[in-house]
Every structure is written in structure tokens, then in C-alpha cells.
Inverse folding.
């Protein structure tokens, strides 16, 4: 058989034949391109919209993707609460027309298409919009398969998802009481934050106005020295009061100068933290190597990450122990799968960001990922109130320190749109406007 005959046989009946045999036709691979004109009856996306609601204290954004199959739709979290209307605009004005008529089955292709569609990529607004669509597409695919999403991700690695909860108070005794109360509810992992009178420590309130030196500014006072001195005292007290078995965590929230964060991590080493969170800002990533050389306190990082270049070196350099991305900030379920897989090879565990500004839809997606990820570490947890649970039927339940997954197809969660509309988002304090107000005693703005 000569070469021409071989190629003719190889490409017979395909568009490739025209190209390799010297004809004038350009390459037209079958498959995705052909579906730009969908055949009648094929599933397609008919509507994409952002739904804003605030049934709890926090403003949430959820994307709903509807399809040509009656009753088949998906939901995905797109919550960037501080700039929530910009995300809704990105979804409604840009992604909705871009996705209309496309096949929801091609999740990876649609992810890459959406990602390229703005030319300038990444950024919290566009990534939240994209992530909401992505998770909704996974929800649709799993519903079509008649399986809970974790089955499509590889199946269960564990029976339920261990979580950590937040303990805080304005005195050592109050924090210890809060820890003991949460332990009594069966939780084994607890983040502890201490409030100081007149000092706005993260996660514990406290407040206080900037000093007289800054009376021309408005905001809350933060004294890094007072904060740093208080944390070892807190852990010393807690280890005596609550024992060694409970796993304790702490969040610096990127508030210290890098060398002070390294010093604090060294001081805390003897208290055997489960992890120390956000010791450095993403902008100070170069300090992680120095931190690693100084102590073995486990480090969690990543809720502010947005661009793959922010986590690649920290993971591959074995400079962090837990990856904590906010799923809708990095690209949704599709991106989280890849990040978890990367981390797997470097023994970095997952600890996805899970406060109240991850919607119940986002928490549901995280439960499925956590069940199917071998290198899962821990899940941050928020206890949603009954109103939120009514707006989001199927919100994951928490019992005995574990988050539980229902076995419904897809993400296993829904959104009651009529009820959600009764809790419109409002553009007013306190939550949205608390950021960007933290100042030092002389009025200098601080990291949040
Ligand atoms: Mg945090």
C-alpha cells in the first residue's frame, strides 16, 4: 500500500481526508466544532443567570444554568461578597450570551472557552463568574448520570468530611469555654481567636477606634505587637485547660510583618497546631522559604489565591502543608480537582475556604470534592441558620464534627428562588464595608 492509499484509508469519511490528500479543505475535526450548529434534540444551555440573596448576614451569589431538557438545571457558587454585583454583571451580561446554545456536557472545553473569552484572565470577578458556571455544569452532568457528584470525581475515600469550627472570645477563659462547648458537640478541630479590648483582632471582634494620632481617619484599630504577644499566651492557656487531644488552629490573616509572622510561628511550634493559617500575604510569598527553615508549625495558605502562579511554587517547593483556596476564586470544581491532584504529589492536603461567604451551594460542592480527594485535610465549616437552609434545601448537615453528604444526584442541593427573593442583598454595612478600615495607631491602613 503506498502512502496516498494508506492516508485515504486512514481518513476515509472524515474531514481530514481533504487536507492530507492535498484538497483545498481546511482541517475540520469532528466533534466540538461540529456542535457549533447543534442538531435538533441535543442538550443545550438555554439560560444562565446570577441569583443574589442574603438569607443570613452575608450576601451570596449563585449561578443557575438551565438546559433544553425540562427541569434539568445546575447550581454553582459565585460568591465574592465584597463586590457581588460585579460578579452578577459578569454572569448576566457576558457569560450568559457566550454560553447560550452550547452543550453543557463539555465542561472542560467550556471552562477553557470562558477563561479565554475575556482575553484578560483571572481576577476575582471573572473567576467567580466562571466558577459558578463550572460547578453548575458538574451539577447538571451528575444529575444526568443519576449519581451524586462524588461518584463522578472517583468515588468516596472516606465516609464523611471532618470539619473545623471557630472558637473566639474576649478573654482567655471565654475562648476556652467556647472550645470546650464545641468539643462537647463532637468536633475535633477548632480554630481559636482571641479578642483584645480596644484592638480589632481578626476573628474575635474587639473593635476600638484608631488612636488620637489618627483622628482624621475612620476605622478600627489594630496593634500588631499586642496581637502577637497575645497568641502564645492563648495557646499556653488552652493546652492547660482543654488538653492535648483537640486539634487547635489559628489564623494570622496576613496581619503581621513577615519577620513577626515567622517569629510567631516559631513560638507556637511547641503547642502543636493542626495548622497556622495565612501567616503571610500572597504578596509576601517569598518569605515562605524562610518560614519553613525556622520551624515545623504546619502552614495553611491560599484563600486569597486567584492565579495559578500564586500556588505553584508554594506547593511544588513543599513550603505549605494545606491549600485553602476559595473555590469560586480559582475556577470552581474543575480547578479544585486539578489543584488537589497537584497537591497530592507533594503531600499537601486540602482545606478549602469555608466561611459564611461560601454559599451552601459552594459547601455542597466542597463536600463532594472532600469525599473523593485522598489528600483531603480538613474542611472549614459554617453552621447555617434555619432560614438559609430553607432557601437552600439540601444544605449539608453537620454532626459530631463531620459534614455529611446526601445521596441525591448532582450536588444534592437546590435553591428556592421565590424564598431567596425575600432576602434581597443590601449595599450597606456592616459586612461589606468592614474591609479596608483597619488602621494602626498612627492611622496607617493595615491588611484586613
Ligand atoms: Mg482565613
Amino acid at each position: 500500500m503506498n502512502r496516498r492509499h494508506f492516508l485515504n484509508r486512514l481518513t476515509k469519511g472524515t474531514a481530514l481526508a481533504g487536507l492530507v490528500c492535498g484538497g483545498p479543505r481546511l482541517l475540520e475535526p469532528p466533534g466540538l466544532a461540529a456542535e457549533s450548529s447543534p442538531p435538533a434534540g441535543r442538550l443545550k444551555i438555554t439560560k444562565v443567570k446570577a441569583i443574589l440573596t442574603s438569607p443570613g448576614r452575608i450576601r451570596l451569589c449563585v449561578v443557575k444554568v438551565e438546559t433544553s431538557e425540562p427541569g434539568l438545571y445546575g447550581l454553582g457558587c459565585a460568591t465574592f461578597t465584597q463586590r457581588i454585583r460585579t460578579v452578577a454583571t459578569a454572569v448576566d451580561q457576558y457569560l450568559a450570551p457566550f454560553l447560550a446554545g452550547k452543550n453543557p456536557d463539555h465542561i472542560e472545553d467550556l471552562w477553557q472557552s470562558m477563561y479565554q473569552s475575556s482575553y484578560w484572565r483571572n481576577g476575582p470577578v471573572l473567576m467567580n463568574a466562571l466558577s459558578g458556571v463550572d460547578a453548575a455544569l458538574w451539577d447538571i452532568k451528575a444529575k444526568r448520570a443519576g449519581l451524586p457528584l462524588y461518584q463522578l470525581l472517583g468515588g468516596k475515600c472516606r465516609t464523611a468530611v471532618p470539619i473545623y469550627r471557630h472558637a473566639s472570645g474576649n478573654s482567655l477563659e471565654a475562648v476556652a469555654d467556647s472550645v470546650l462547648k464545641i468539643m462537647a458537640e463532637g468536633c475535633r478541630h477548632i480554630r481559636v481567636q482571641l479578642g483584645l479590648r480596644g484592638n480589632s483582632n481578626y476573628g474575635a471582634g474587639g473593635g476600638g477606634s484608631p488612636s488620637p494620632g489618627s483622628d482624621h481617619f475612620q476605622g478600627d484599630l489594630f496593634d500588631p505587637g499586642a496581637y502577637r504577644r497575645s497568641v502564645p499566651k492563648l495557646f499556653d492557656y488552652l493546652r492547660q485547660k482543654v488538653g492535648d487531644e483537640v486539634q487547635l488552629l489559628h489564623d494570622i490573616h496576613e496581619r503581621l510583618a513577615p519577620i513577626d509572622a515567622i517569629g510567631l510561628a516559631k513560638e507556637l511550634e511547641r503547642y502543636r497546631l493542626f495548622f497556622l493559617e495565612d501567616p503571610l500575604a500572597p504578596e509576601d510569598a517569598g518569605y515562605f522559604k524562610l518560614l519553613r527553615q525556622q520551624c515545623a508549625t504546619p502552614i495553611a495558605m491560599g484563600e486569597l489565591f486567584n492565579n495559578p502562579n500564586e500556588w505553584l511554587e508554594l506547593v511544588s517547593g513543599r513550603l505549605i502543608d494545606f491549600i485553602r483556596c476559595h473555590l469560586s476564586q480559582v475556577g470552581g470544581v474543575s480547578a479544585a480537582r486539578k489543584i488537589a491532584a497537584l497537591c497530592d504529589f507533594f503531600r499537601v492536603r486540602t482545606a478549602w475556604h469555608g466561611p459564611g461567604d461560601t454559599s451552601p451551594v459552594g459547601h455542597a460542592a466542597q463536600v463532594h470534592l472532600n469525599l473523593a480527594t485522598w489528600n483531603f485535610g480538613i474542611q472549614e465549616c459554617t453552621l447555617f441558620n434555619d432560614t438559609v437552609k430553607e432557601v437552600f434545601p439540601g444544605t449539608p448537615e453537620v454532626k459530631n464534627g463531620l459534614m455529611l453528604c446526601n445521596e441525591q444526584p448532582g450536588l444534592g442541593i437546590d435553591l428556592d428562588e421565590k424564598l431567596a427573593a425575600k432576602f434581597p442583598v443590601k449595599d450597606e454595612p456592616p459586612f461589606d464595608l468592614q474591609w479596608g478600615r483597619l488602621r494602626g495607631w498612627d492611622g496607617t491602613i493595615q491588611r484586613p
Summary: Confidence is low (pLDDT under 50) at residues 6-23. The first strand starts at residue 45 and ends at 53.
